[in-house]
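Input structure tokens:
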């Protein structure tokens, strides 16, 4: 993809589409002033008209006098400095302009506009990521593919910065993050009759073949039986399609260096099992493998960026279905850790597969383990779609992840896993139940996982509210790939 930073006068830059971000009022920056001068005061006139008063509003002009651009698009930031998330909306708008089919070449002039405490390097990465994200189109299940597919124009990010190497590195990183996000989005959006555990295993094999330093190993149900993963296997009991434990190892770091383990919930469809879910919106439970998808996405980006770090991706992939063979409420199973679990609700299945994967992770002696899961509806109640829930047994790890969320606009918010909540998991018949007494569902679920993650620094991201959008814009978001990649980058140093 041809997206490069250039230090160039915007007035004499030849391009199909020149996009200029600027505030609705105040003095013009050097670059905007240059454009204004060359065009005989065009920009000042438009600003005076008031058409650019609102943040996100825009004005397009064809064949602007005095400029070499065929089309000039002015995009307004409004009259206040944008916040990170307002800025993300603006880059989203610019991204759709430079990826519109038909635009062959484009130039973007951000004019130094950035949120407080951010710099041009940060904005360059955000813009590139937005451009990469807007290339995503899921039409493979329609009988006719879209004719006007988005494509990234040959794009120049114009600024007066001479440090184009730094900006280009940021652009490349932004595009790589988007590539991982789009990989994850596709897996999420695929229907559950295509995206089965076996399909995910095949994609892992395909990725390993295509990617240097990435290998994969797929464990069968039989191998999981030998490992005594009784909890994971209880979830797959009701379905006719086989479960797999997908293991992906990326070895970008020094040999023998402790890896970061990413564990992703891969329930390719969650009907609830015998504790079956109500019908409304049940289709969205095809997204119950978005944690797994984010592990794929993070590995795609890590490999693209050639991160010098070792990563293990662990994906328990299963379908949760009711049948005559399904696990029943009241059944007691023994997890790989030896701890027994009374399954009071078969719809609390995510924790049942993750706990065995967390035990399996011990063999890698990981420096940190992060699990990612669409784990609880309660997390959507608590945080909506803006932040993922974060839980951790290690304050440094939690702080690192929160920081990475802030940095990328892929935010998380920490919730407690106090012993007071853990007590809700008490069972009369087994070591624990798989659901708690009423209240704090996300916290209790995290407490359950915490019982299997005592041997390493561990964090859990509940992405039930952030992994996909519902309604008219239904679709996977690619979150929390940006957060995870930022964490991996920082661990790589
Ligand atoms: N996959 C769901 C959680 C979920 C629900 C995510 C809705 C996004 C939207 C999970 O397996 C589940 O069913 N959790 C139950 C737990 C309950 C039975 C303790 C829930 O949240 O209702
Ligand atoms: Mn469930
Ligand atoms: Zn689920």
């Amino acid at each position: 993809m041809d997206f490069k930073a250039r230090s160039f006068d915007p007035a004499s830059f030849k391009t199909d589409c020149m996009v200029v971000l600027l505030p609705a009022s105040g003095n013009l920056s050097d670059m905007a002033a240059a454009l204004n001068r060359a065009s005989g005061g065009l920009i000042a006139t438009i600003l005076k008209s008031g058409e650019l008063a609102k943040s996100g509003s825009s004005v397009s002009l064809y064949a602007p006098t005095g400029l070499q651009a065929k089309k000039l698009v002015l995009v307004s930031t409004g009259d206040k400095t944008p916040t990170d998330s307002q800025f993300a909306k603006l880059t989203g708008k610019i991204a759709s302009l430079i990826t519109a089919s038909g635009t062959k070449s484009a130039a973007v002039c951000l004019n130094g506009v950035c949120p407080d405490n951010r710099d041009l390097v940060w904005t360059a990465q955000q813009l590139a990521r937005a451009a990469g994200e807007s290339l995503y189109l899921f039409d493979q299940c329609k009988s006719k593919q879209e004719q006007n597919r988005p494509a990234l124009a040959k794009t120049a990010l114009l600024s007066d910065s001479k440090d184009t190497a730094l900006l280009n590195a940021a652009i490349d990183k932004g595009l790589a993050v988007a590539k991982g996000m789009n990989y994850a989005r596709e897996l999420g959006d695929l229907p559950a009759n295509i995206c089965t555990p076996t399909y995910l295993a095949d994609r892992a094999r395909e990725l390993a073949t295509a990617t240097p330093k990435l290998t994969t190993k797929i464990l069968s149900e039989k191998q999981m039986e030998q490992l005594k993963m009784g909890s994971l296997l209880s979830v797959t009991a009701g379905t006719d399609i086989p479960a797999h434990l997908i293991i992906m190892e990326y070895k970008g770091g020094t040999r023998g260096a402790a890896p970061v383990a990413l564990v992703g919930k891969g329930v390719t469809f969650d009907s609830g099992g015998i504790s079956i879910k109500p019908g409304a919106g049940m289709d969205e439970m095809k997204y119950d493998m978005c944690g797994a998808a984010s592990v794929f996405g993070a590995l795609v980006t890590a490999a693209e960026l050639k991160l010098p770090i070792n990563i293990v991706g662990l994906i328990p992939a299963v379908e949760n279905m009711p049948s005559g063979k399904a696990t029943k409420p009241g059944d007691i199973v023994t997890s790989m850790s030896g701890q027994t679990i009374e399954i009071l609700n078969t719809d609390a299945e995510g924790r049942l597969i993750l706990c065995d994967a967390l035990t399996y992770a011990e063999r890698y002696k990981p420096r940190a383990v992060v699990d990612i899961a669409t784990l609880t509806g309660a997390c959507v109640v608590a945080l909506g779609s803006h932040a993922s829930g974060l839980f951790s047994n290690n304050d440094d790890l939690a702080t690192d992840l929160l920081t990475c969320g802030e940095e990328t606009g892929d935010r998380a918010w920490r919730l407690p896993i106090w012993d007071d909540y853990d007590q809700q998991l008490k069972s009369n018949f087994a070591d624990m139940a798989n659901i708690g007494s009423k209240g704090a569902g996300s916290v209790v679920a995290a407490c359950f996982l915490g019982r299997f993650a005592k041997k390493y620094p561990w964090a859990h991201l509940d992405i039930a509210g952030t992994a996909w959008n519902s309604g008219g814009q239904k679709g996977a978001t690619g979150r929390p790939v940006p957060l995870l990649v930022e964490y991996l980058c920082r661990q790589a140093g």
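The chain has a mean pLDDT of 98. The longest strand covers residues 310-320.
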